[in-house]
Predict the 3D structure of the following.
Amino acid sequence: SFNAGWFKTLNVKGNAAAESLSRAKITCNKNGIPFDTESPMITSGIRLGTQAGTTRGFGIEEFKKVGDLITKTIKGLSDNPSDNSKIESIVRQEVIELCSKFPIYKNLRK
């Protein structure tokens, strides 16, 4: 996992980023960054894990795609802080498409 505080330059807080990413089906936690000036309930960063992707079998290209989707969501939130639902919906569909190519339970039948 790693801590991402780079979007502070986009005037996006960790809690808002985590909530927007969650709506886009990307799981993360709000997280403080070194020398964070925000309260623990707000934060300036997020924490992302790689375990869900590696469990699915994601490789380098898939993780690059995940990074692009995170960037798209955070930039959308920066551009439209009161309603990022359009970008969240687009990203959510891309997440579903990506994950459908890497099912966790390949032999599970309906």
About this structure: The mean pLDDT is 89. The CA atoms of residues 54 and 63 lie 9 Å apart. The two ends are 33 Å apart (CA to CA).
